[in-house]
Amino acid sequence: MRPIAGHRWHIDCFRCNTCATLLESDANLLLLGDSSLVCNNCTYSCSHCVNKIEDLAILTGNQAYCAHCFTCRNSERKIENLRYTRTSQGISA
């Protein structure tokens, strides 16, 4: 069993949810809110800065944001409490 963040996987189930690659216990990966794993090769790119997200990924529909870029389009302040509205013009707190 592989324990990560309070979750456990059988060794054969410790795979990337996107490409199904078997992961090592020291692999660079994202643990999504639904407890699925994403390897470094399949990780999301931020919809705002376009960099690969290597830490906290905030998913809003088909878009992903790094924690630094998840800001209100009006005030440009970081959205801390994850209460927001997504519109065609961007994210608002």
UniProtKB/TrEMBL annotation:
Protein name according to UniProt: Uncharacterized protein
The organism of origin for this protein: Macroventuria anomochaeta
